Amino acid sequence: MPRLMDDGELTGSAVVANNTMNRERGLSGVNSYARELGFDPAGWLAGRGGAVAWLDLCSGEGRALVEAAGLLPDAAELTGVDLVGPLVPPAPPYGPAPGAARLRLVTAAVADWTPGRRYDLITCVHGLHYLGDQLGAIVRAAGWLAPDGRFAAHFDPDSVRHPDGSSAARPVVAALRAAGFEYRAWRHLLVLDGGRVVRLPFGYLGADPAAGPNYTGQPAVGSYYREALPV
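Predicted structure:
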């Protein structure tokens, strides 16, 4: 087993502070959230009506949120959380101005951040690849979701390892499915409809930022877990 980092040390690694993976991705088009997720987040939220809320984890520049803010009513609330954050603050009218959804871009480590509300939609587009405790982030997000909300995140099961370095993909995916998640392998997409308390039978040991490229071709983190008794 390689030397593993805890999440505090991991945030200082060059692999985790990746400023290219999700920087330029917009809401729709070729390089977009709609293409990567298989649905249009703004359209999905608009169909719900009312004061909807969207949380985007590992949001990069927040371009998709900025674009969505101009399409959704001002009662909507959009929040992005990213370790690096936007390099340039989004220009008006996005923010508290009338006629645009309320937009907040938070610079913070996902592992250290906690919201003060529940969300209709929580997304993480190619962001879990850079987190240490990926399963912990997934469990927390499930608890932040509205009872009829949706969580959608790209997830590479092969990045989750046993203590000996072998893949824990099979037991992890089985446990996630038992907890109510759907794993769409062709998109590497993990989806949960309906917020809930989730407990998974794995204990986090630490992460290896030198695990090498994953299916995206980008360097990614290997997350190590020991299997625990079912909870």
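Summary: The first strand starts at residue 53 and ends at 57.
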